Every structure is written in structure tokens, then in C-alpha cells.
Amino acid sequence: MTVTAPTEMERRLRVFAAAAARGPLTEADHDAWNASYGRSEAWDLRIEHREAPGPHGPVPLRVYTPIAPADGPRPVLVFCHGGGFMHGDLEMPEGDHTARGVAGRADAVVVSVDYRLCDAPGDGEPARRIPGTAEDLDVRAPIPCDDVIAAVDWTRASAEELGIDPDRLALGGASAGGNLAAAASLRLAEAGRAPAASLLMYLVAHPLNPEATEEEAAALAELPLQLRFTPEGMRGMSENYLGGPLERATPHDFPGLGTPEQLAILPRTYIEADEFDDLRTSARRYAEQLAEAGVEVEFEVRRGVTHGHLNKVGLPQAAESRDRMAALMQEL
């Protein structure tokens, strides 16, 4: 039996879990867990801020284009950061570093979407407001997904200006952004405008996580409560996104609720899960559902990492994920 050495993130996870088991976590514990793993990547790109017209107001975008001349129209990835539908922005590594890394590796254009966010439940802080959003707009489903579709429509309509091939457009996202990318892909496919591919990183496919396999449960047992997506936490996040009870949810909100007949129209899909992540069960089950529906799907578990590994600056496994995403873009 081959025993592999723990990754640096696994080592930090054990230290963090041990600290959590001893008592309240200190600022030093959090700093050690969140510390950079190395230097960020450098790519020669032109970065522009644009806006897409949308049904709820303008949608801010950040466009990443390789500086080097292209032989012809480039492929394009429209990408959505995560943050539980309530947090996140274009600056977070999951958005910015992912966009830079995929654009540079694949010689592709990446359009990063600053979709509207939901306010936190209860007495939580109000979400960051996008300029041009009506003050009385209660951001719930499907508003964030509407913004993503507006970004896709703008990208296709701007193909000549952006130097991209609109038929080689992939739609991707991470965590809650993966949910929005999957839901937008379904809605676009229903309208006869499916993307060429979907790239879904540790996505929220279901309002509640499906049951874990024995192997998944063993990995999840290593997580301290602070890193868990508990059933109560998932219900709170999902109901907050919906603005109501889970019984109201449809496949346009959580694509994992779709039937095989509904999901069969989806394009080629890549799904990646993190080994130490409760959302791993949702990603795995959604991949199974797509396969059962006859969709071309690839599922991979990124070993040795926790949820949101694309936010970890300098993490080798994050670079591996960007490598895979870029390779998929080059295949379009």
C-alpha cells in the first residue's frame, strides 16, 4: 500500500483542527490557516473594466485578455466567483487569480462577473451594492443568475471587439458561483443558447448536501466545525438565496433538482470537488446525475485541499486546477 505524504494544506488543516479542539480559535490560529502558500502568478494581460446591460441594472465585468497577438479569435470563459451568494467580489483570488491563470495558460479571454449579492439573513451586514441597482431591490434568486446570463449575452454580442469566438464560450464558476454557472447553463440551453462547456468548481448543486459515501464521510470527519457546511448552515444559505423555504426551489435555482430529461440538454461539463469539503457530495452527485442524463461529464476530486482552494495564493493544487481549466478551454 502506497502512503503519500500530507500536503501543506493537510498539515495546516491538522494544526487548525487541533487548535479548534482545544478551545476558541485565536487570531494567530486564523492567520496561520489563511497564510499564503507562495507567490502569486504573473501573466502578461490587458485587464479592462466593462459593464453588461441587465434586467436589474448594469452588471460590472472585468475582462482579461492576453497581450500577445492571437492567430485568430480566442476562446472565452465567463467566470463567477463564490461567496455563499452573499459575499465575494472581483478582487478575491478565486475570481482574479483564476481569471489571470486561465487566460494566461490557455491564451483565452476571461470575463469575470460581479453579479448582485444577497443580504445576509437576520441581522447580518447588507451585501455590497452594485452601482445602478435600485435601492429597494431585494436580491434573491433568480437575480444573480440573471446577471450571469446578461454577462454571457454581452460577451457573445461583443465577440468582434473582444477578439473571441462566441461559439467557443465556456461558462464557469466556483462554489455559489458554480451554482450560478450551472443554473445559467441550464437556462441558456433551454433557450437554445447553451455554452460550449461548463466548468464547475466545488459547486453548490443542491439546496442540501446529498448523503456522503463512506470514503467521503471519512474525509469530512477530519474537518473542524469552523470549516463545515452543516445541514443547518446549508439550509440557511439556500433559504436566504431563495428568499423563502426550500420547497420553493427549482432546477433554475439548484440544478441538482433537475430530472434526467431536464438535464440532458446541458453541454459538456467539468466538475471538480475538494477532498475535505461537505460540498463534495453535491458535486459528485451532480456529476452522477449528468452522466445518467447522457451529458458528457468529467468529475475530479482535488486531493489534499479544503473548500475554496482557488482562494489560496500560491497553493500548488490551485495551480493544478487552473491547468485543467485552461486545458479544457484549449479543447473548445
Task: Report on this structure.
Keywords: Hydrolase. GO terms for molecular function: hydrolase activity. The structure is a single chain. The chain has helices at residues 8-22, 27-34, 93-106, 143-157, 159-162, 176-190, 214-220, 231-242, 260-263, 280-292, 316-330, and strands at residues 45-52, 59-66, 74-80, 109-113, 164-174, 197-201, 268-276, 297-306. The protein is an alpha/beta fold and 332 residues long. The chain folds into two domains: 7-36; 43-330, Rossmann fold. An eight-stranded mixed β-sheet has the order 1-2-4-3-5-6-7-8, sandwiched between helices. Helix 1 (8-22) packs antiparallel against helix 2 (27-34), helix 3 (93-106) crosses helix 11 (316-330) and helix 4 crosses helix 6 (176-190). The longest helix is centred in the N-terminal third of the chain and has 15 residues, at 8-22.
Compact description:
By secondary structure, this protein is an alpha/beta fold. It has helices spanning 8-22, 27-34, 93-106, 143-157, 159-162, 176-190, 214-220, 231-242, 260-263, 280-292, 316-330, and strands spanning 45-52, 59-66, 74-80, 109-113, 164-174, 197-201, 268-276, 297-306. Helix 4 crosses helix 6.
CATH class value of the largest domain: Alpha Beta
Biggest sheet strand line-up: 1-2-4-3-5-6-7-8
Tally of domains: 2
- Tell me about the biggest sheet? 8 strands, mixed
Poorly predicted runs are none
- Topology order in helix (H) and strand (E) letters: HHEEEHEHHEHEHHHEHEH
Q: What structural class is derived from the secondary structure elements?
A: alpha/beta
What is the general shape? globular
Number of strands: 8
Named at the architecture level, the CATH assignment of the largest domain is 3-Layer(aba) Sandwich
How would you name the CATH homologous superfamily of the largest domain?
Answer: Alpha/Beta hydrolase fold, catalytic domain
Chain oligomer state: single chain
